[in-house]
């Protein structure tokens, strides 16, 4: 697998926490066709082993070992790591869906990347232990970066989490995506990490 990073092993308690957060995030997107409600940056950060600012490179799609599902593998160059240790500045992100020959597979809540696209990714290691990373919360763990420097802003296409209406209901958008500055996102990730350390003490 191209550019697969080495990861530090989670302690058992860490895995329990990660699985619990991922279950919450999975529930938030499981009914995408009818209703999707956003989760907070803090929830995404707590459910992720790695958070990076990265640029997309090449992609390819392939069947899994059982030949039952197609996955797309995208290589990223990491420009900045906000959480988690990486052995290399090159990582590989695996997503459901893609095209192999004449067979096309698409999954709701999964968007493929374009070469050169700059993103902030909330990630966790694939349970298959194949050296790849998966995006936390599907579309919610992928923030597109617009602009540069201090003017850079990010959005994952979701509205700001609140008691307001969900982003989609029966396939129709009902709320506008929320955009924040990249600096704000970074600060919220740092704050979430700091809160987690205090809770563990």
Helix count equals 3
Give me the secondary-structure category. alpha+beta
Low-confidence stretches: 1-11, 27-34
Q: Tell me the number of structural domains.
A: 1
Distance between the termini: 37 Å
Largest sheet: 8 strands, antiparallel
Q: Rough shape?
A: globular
Mean pLDDT score: 80
Q: How many DSSP-defined strands?
A: 13
Strand content: 25-35%
Radius of gyration: 17 Å
Task: Please give the share of residues in helix.
Answer: 10-25%
Order of helices and strands: HEHEEEEEEEEEEEEH
Verbal overview:
Residues 1-11 and 27-34 have low confidence and may be disordered. Strands 2, 3, 4, 7, 8, 9, 10 and 13 form an eight-stranded antiparallel sheet that branches. The protein contains three helices and 13 strands. It has one domain. It is 22% helix and 34% strand. The longest helix has 19 residues, at 12-30. The chain has helices spanning 12-30, 41-46, 182-200, and strands at residues 35-36, 50-63, 70-83, 90-96, 98-100, 103-105, 118-125, 133-135, 142-146, 153-155, 168-169, 172-173, 180-181. The protein has 201 residues and is α+β, with helices and mostly antiparallel strands.
């Amino acid at each position: 697998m191209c550019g697969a990073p080495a990861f530090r092993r989670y302690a058992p308690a860490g895995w329990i926490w990660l699985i619990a957060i991922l279950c919450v995030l999975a529930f938030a997107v499981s009914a995408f066709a009818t209703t999707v409600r956003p989760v907070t940056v803090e929830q995404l950060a707590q459910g992720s082993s790695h958070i990076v600012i990265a640029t997309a490179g090449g992609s390819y799609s392939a069947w899994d070992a059982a030949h039952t599902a197609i996955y797309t593998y995208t290589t990223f160059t990491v420009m900045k790591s906000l959480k988690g240790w990486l052995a290399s500045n090159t990582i590989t992100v695996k997503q459901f869906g893609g095209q192999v020959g004449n067979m096309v597979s698409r999954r709701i809540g999964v968007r493929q990347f374009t070469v050169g696209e700059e993103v902030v990714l909330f990630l966790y290691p694939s349970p298959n232990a194949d050296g790849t990373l998966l995006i936390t919360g599907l579309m919610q763990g992928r923030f597109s970066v617009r602009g540069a420097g201090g003017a850079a802003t990010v959005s994952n296409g979701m509205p700001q989490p609140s008691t307001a209406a969900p982003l989609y209901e029966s396939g129709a958008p009902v709320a506008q995506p929320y955009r924040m500055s990249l600096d704000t996102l970074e600060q919220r990730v740092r704050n979430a990490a700091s809160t987690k350390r205090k809770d563990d003490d």
